Amino acid sequence: xxxxxxxxxxxxxxxxxxxxxxxxxxIPLLDTINALPDYYTTSSCSGRVYLxxxxxxxxxxxxxxxxxxxxxxxxxGCDEKIGIVWLRLEAVILHIACKDLEAAHTLLEKxxxxxxxxxxxxxxxxxxxxxxxxxxxxxxxxxxxxxxFSGEFGWLKDLINPKLDKMWKDMExxxxxx
Length: 178
Fold this sequence. Notes:
By secondary structure, the chain is α+β, with helices and mostly antiparallel strands. The protein has 4 helices and 9 strands, in the order ααβββββαββββα. Helix 2 runs parallel beside helix 4 (154-177). It has one domain (3-177): SSo0622-like fold (2-Layer Sandwich), CATH 3.30.1960.10. The protein has helices spanning 3-12, 27-35, 101-111, 154-177, and strands spanning 39-45, 48-54, 61-67, 84-90, 93-98, 119-123, 127-132, 136-143, 146-147. A hairpin with a 6-residue loop joins strand 2 and strand 3 (61-67).
């Protein structure tokens, strides 16, 4: 199957993400990438913040709250009374299929201006570039329903929201670059 046929087939598939839809903030970037002849996106996230519990393995993690938008202090409220509830901020991530290694290299050169952790994720049956931001926060927030720090949530919101805002601004800069 040619790259163009793979692209058409993949882009025609329905979304299978945990969220059940594409983040609104990442759509302009996806549209730009998918309009280029040598690339198509296979997965994406505009960046998110969430409360979770479990082992940390994807199949053993329960998301209690998730936001792909700026948050307020109410976001940190949690009714979970058993175990540890974690707070996590994850950066922008895109998986992009590339026509060949030359196209992957060209994309990586542009991506690394904004996303230093970007790399070739796979070069076997498909050449996949991973574009990944470096913003990340993870901390235990509650244990058995008890908050693990004293004070207000304002400082935590003020730590997270600028990081989210920076991610979205960098996405637009990256979109204009490619």
